[in-house]
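User: Just a sanity check before I run the rest of the batch. Below are the structure tokens for the first item. I only need the designed sequence back.
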């Protein structure tokens, strides 16, 4: 092998090794940002054919309906606790912050947070649907067969 071919081969190997290292580092960095979507049933019973459950401390998103009568607000702080359901088990959500204006009992929501116990999530973000007809596709699929309560409009007060 002449020196010119040897130099090209070494350059090609260096570029392939560099690209491989860069792709590996990017995938490693993004690993912490991947959060999977679960329903309450999938969270408790497991997801997929392998019935794979998330581990405590895992970052995830969960969607379902807020169980009527389950919202507990701390009068001295912004701590809120409520229960989320779909067709099966119930999951407790802990949240510190201001809830969206459209948040109410009996409505679909998506919460993003960390699993702190097998049936408890400490949320750092709660998203409520934006109108009476829209629901995220994952939540709509998970909640087929559950009665959806529309908000009641109070004309006298002009609010919901």
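Assistant: Here's the designed sequence for the first item:
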């Amino acid at each position: 092998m002449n020196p010119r071919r040897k130099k090209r081969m070494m350059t090609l190997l260096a570029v392939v090794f560099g690209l491989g290292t860069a792709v590996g580092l990017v995938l490693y960095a993004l690993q912490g940002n991947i959060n999977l979507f679960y329903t309450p049933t999938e969270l408790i019973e497991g997801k997929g054919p392998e019935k794979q459950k998330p581990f405590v401390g895992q970052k995830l998103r969960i969607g379902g309906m807020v169980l009527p009568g389950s919202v507990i607000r701390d009068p001295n702080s912004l701590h809120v606790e409520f229960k989320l359901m779909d067709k099966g088990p119930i999951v407790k959500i802990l949240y510190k912050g201001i809830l969206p204006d459209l948040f109410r009992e009996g409505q679909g929501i998506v919460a993003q947070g960390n699993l702190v116990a097998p049936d408890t999530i400490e949320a750092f973000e709660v998203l409520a649907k934006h109108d009476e007809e829209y629901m995220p596709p994952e939540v709509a699929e998970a909640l087929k067969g559950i009665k959806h309560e529309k908000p009641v409009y109070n004309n006298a007060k002009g609010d919901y």
